[in-house]
Design goal:
This protein has helices at 2-17, 19-40, 45-68, 74-98. The model has no long low-confidence stretch (mean pLDDT 89). The longest helix is centred in the C-terminal third of the chain and has 25 residues, at 74-98. The chain contains 4 helices and no strands.
Length: 99
């Protein structure tokens, strides 16, 4: 039970310390879950579209946040967000091509 209490307190503290980063983390975690579900279930498009749209939203949010208030690791964060954005847009294009 202590482990869950520790994680819950860390979760609450991180949400209070930096809310935009916390929301982006939640969006990316939900995107991972949706893309995982899309890889398992035979009815892929709804979960795939939701997961990719969450990745696009989180990536754009990260890029805007880094442009407004740069962090110490700005370059790596921007590169990762740009890479996620490009991959998710490619996923959308591929999905539209197959439908």
């Amino acid at each position: 039970m202590r482990i869950w209490s520790f994680w819950f307190n860390s979760f609450i503290l991180s949400s209070q310390y930096n809310p935009p980063r916390f929301v982006e983390l939640l969006m990316l975690l939900l995107a991972i879950a949706m893309l995982g579900i899309a890889s398992i279930l035979p009815d892929k498009p709804p979960y795939l579209i939701l997961g990719l749209s969450l990745v696009v939203g989180a990536s754009i949010s990260i890029l805007v946040r880094e442009a407004i208030a740069p962090s110490p690791e700005t370059r790596i964060t921007q590169l990762t967000a740009s890479l996620l954005l490009i991959i998710s847009l490619y996923g959308f294009a591929d999905l539209m091509y197959t439908l």
